[in-house]
Amino acid sequence: MINKRILTLLSILSFFLLSVSSFAQEAKIYEKYGVTVETLQPGLSEGDQAFLFKGKDQDGKTYQLKEALKKGPVVVNFFRGSWCPYCTKHLMNVQDSLGMIEAAGATFVAVTPENQERFAKLVEKKGLTFEMVEDSKLDIMNGFKVTFDVNQGYQDMLKKYENDLTVTNSIKRASLPVPATYIIAQDGTIIKRHYDPNYTERMSVKDILSTLQAQ
């Protein structure tokens, strides 16, 4: 009969090997999306207190989350940059439904590491009427724990399309946010989040509205 201690050790070893295999598979997927896995932050969770940030918007005015929350809930979206078609499409969807978000008592703000000159052009071109904020030192991204460093393969791919993150990012560094969305109650508590390193996935406007209307 196999000793119980040996069975326990075998069980622990099996769990360890499965964990290593699972991590390797996950890492391979994340690398596909440009993520240097060891730098990937886990994101704030529902129930956490939001990081009360401030920064310059597209008009050079100071945006403060603390002040915005006095008016009602705030939807914070992390925007990779005007070069990202998935991000732009999502923001256009939000713009199309912005009236309904505001009717639910909330406001929407997008945060990006891209320099203000570039995203201000996107705002004007697409007619976006919500505020966008420059995260010039990655303080906001780090405050929400959504930052990662971009791997070299993805950087090289972007450069083929004449986009060098060390040039287009305000901080001149190849770092991006997970394109996460956080819905924050007036007391600063995160009541809903969408966090997925897969940049093709976003929190839908439908989910945003259903969360706000349930409050």
From TrEMBL:
<dbReference type="Pfam" id="PF00578">
    <property type="entry name" value="AhpC-TSA"/>
</dbReference>
<keyword id="KW-0732">Signal</keyword>
<feature type="signal peptide">
    <location>
        <begin position="1"/>
        <end position="24"/>
    </location>
</feature>
<dbReference type="InterPro" id="IPR036249">
    <property type="entry name" value="Thioredoxin-like_sf"/>
</dbReference>
<comment type="similarity">
    <text>Belongs to the peroxiredoxin family. BCP/PrxQ subfamily.</text>
</comment>
<dbReference type="GO" id="GO:0045454">
    <property type="term" value="P:cell redox homeostasis"/>
</dbReference>
<dbReference type="InterPro" id="IPR013766">
    <property type="entry name" value="Thioredoxin_domain"/>
</dbReference>
<dbReference type="GO" id="GO:0008379">
    <property type="term" value="F:thioredoxin peroxidase activity"/>
</dbReference>
<protein>
    <recommendedName>
        <fullName>thioredoxin-dependent peroxiredoxin</fullName>
        <ecNumber>1.11.1.24</ecNumber>
    </recommendedName>
</protein>
<dbReference type="GO" id="GO:0005737">
    <property type="term" value="C:cytoplasm"/>
</dbReference>
<dbReference type="InterPro" id="IPR000866">
    <property type="entry name" value="AhpC/TSA"/>
</dbReference>
<comment type="function">
    <text>Thiol-specific peroxidase that catalyzes the reduction of hydrogen peroxide and organic hydroperoxides to water and alcohols, respectively. Plays a role in cell protection against oxidative stress by detoxifying peroxides and as sensor of hydrogen peroxide-mediated signaling events.</text>
</comment>
<keyword id="KW-0560">Oxidoreductase</keyword>
<keyword id="KW-1015">Disulfide bond</keyword>
<keyword id="KW-0676">Redox-active center</keyword>
<keyword id="KW-0575">Peroxidase</keyword>
<feature type="domain" description="Thioredoxin">
    <location>
        <begin position="44"/>
        <end position="215"/>
    </location>
</feature>
<dbReference type="GO" id="GO:0034599">
    <property type="term" value="P:cellular response to oxidative stress"/>
</dbReference>
<dbReference type="InterPro" id="IPR050924">
    <property type="entry name" value="Peroxiredoxin_BCP/PrxQ"/>
</dbReference>
<keyword id="KW-0049">Antioxidant</keyword>
